[in-house]
Batch of 3 targets.
Target 1
Amino acid sequence: MEMPPVSDPIKPPAARRPQEALELVSQALSDGDLEAALAQYEGAARLVTWQQQPTAAGEGPDAEVRSALACFMALRLPLAVRIGTVLSAPGLALVICERHTTGTDPDGAHVSYRGHGCAVVRAQPDGSWRIAADAWHLGTEIPL
């Protein structure tokens, strides 16, 4: 007899401030928890990264976000985010940040990315905030 899949009984944390949504994504990716990272995005969110992953025909925006975050997680490196500016309007916020990761990837190569990004974060009916659109502009750091 096949057992039904077990779902995680602990729900990912919900952002209570716009910038917290980005911080929770960073923490979840650093911890290797893709589902917790995805929980910070709206179902139809858009995510543009420095390295777009192809989305199969017929797959929606949620597949685009999943693919991009999974690609980053494959590096198995911690992600730091520093919040710069939060521009708020009723129910909506623009969060400008800087993201950084450095370390050794699973193939043993040294990796170091840094760059600015921004996210449009929207208030949800339950009072939490989720990312509606996110842009990551990471570039390879060149050592001096």
Target 2
Amino acid sequence: MCPEVESDRPGDCPKCGMALERNLAWKPAAERIYTCPMHPEIEQDHPGDCPKCGMALVLKTATAGPDQAENAELSDMTRRFWVGAALALPVFGLAMAHLIPALGRQSWADSHASRWGQFALTTPVVWWAGWTFFRRGWRSVSAKLTFAATGG
């Protein structure tokens, strides 16, 4: 969005708040075009997020080998999924324990300690595993508000 902003490390743009992307200009020109699945008019020559909706851009043209940026995003999301699932499974068990007749009569099934344990296990699932969705959602909403404010 702001081509004049450059940095030697990852971070957010000080002007618009979007994530800074690695400069791929040093690579030889390739026939790789990345586009948004929801907005096909958005095209660029490197992976990233759609400026309209925040979705990850996908490769439009076929290539022979896997792209490192695509694999990095996939491995990050896979790790977040499995850690979130591992933390959510005990929460499910604690929340549904009162419905099992043998466990429903136990004092711990409906106790404050059970609720606090559920809170402690759910917090990282929402804030760590789901952070990507919050970030992209916020960028999408702010882009829509900016678009509406400019009369577009």
Target 3
Amino acid sequence: MIVHLIDGTYELFRQFYGRRHFSKGKDERFGAVSGALHSLLEMIETGATHVGVATDHVIESFRNDLWPDYKTGEGIEPALLAQFHPLEEALTAMGVVVWPMIELEADDALASAAQIASGDERVEKVCIWTPDKDLAQCVRGDRVVQVDRKGKTIRNAAGVREKFGVEPELIPDFLALVGDTADGYPGIAGIGAVTAARLLNQYGAIETFPPTVLGEQRDRGLLFKTLARLRTDAPLFHDVDELRWRGPTDAFAAWTDRLGDPRLLERSRKM
């Protein structure tokens, strides 16, 4: 079987701004939710059987306690933020397994789910659907891959090495050195992507750098690595068969009425 793990928060953003582009700035109340549900149904129509969606139930996580400038919900448009929880509820009604994260982030859930699923010998491949570079650290050979829908690429371990210049396991170190503006930490001054890759390939993880390489910035580098390293210990499920989609629940009809999109119900019942 192939297990598909979807970044629900990213999908909501993608649908929200994609629809705005075509609606000339007029936002539908649940437009992004409907778009995300149709996207999931399209995956199922084309053969996906085992699906899990991770969401940021709240934006802040334990990382905000470690670094005060770590990303928050500040700046997210109210019309988009108002669709976070409806997406979770609608997906559940549609019969899709959802992991709404509070202390951890959606990325941690994806990493944890990939760890659990890849440990099952029945699983042929795990596909993580997100362009987020953090998730590149979860890629393992051709078995756990990252699907970048926006870039239309499937990134295996060789693809990660080609893009970043380091092995997937060193992505947290790489991000710690170069920084991640999306997550709100700056990296180490004077170290860009090329230099970071060279140092990591020469010395290995930051912990094994000679003291003179980062000097007084070593502790900061290790802190940023903690921010970049995804947790894989979230107890999301025990058996991959828990992720099998078995059709919509009885509550989905009411949700499609609320969303104003009866085609969702018709589409879900055809499979």
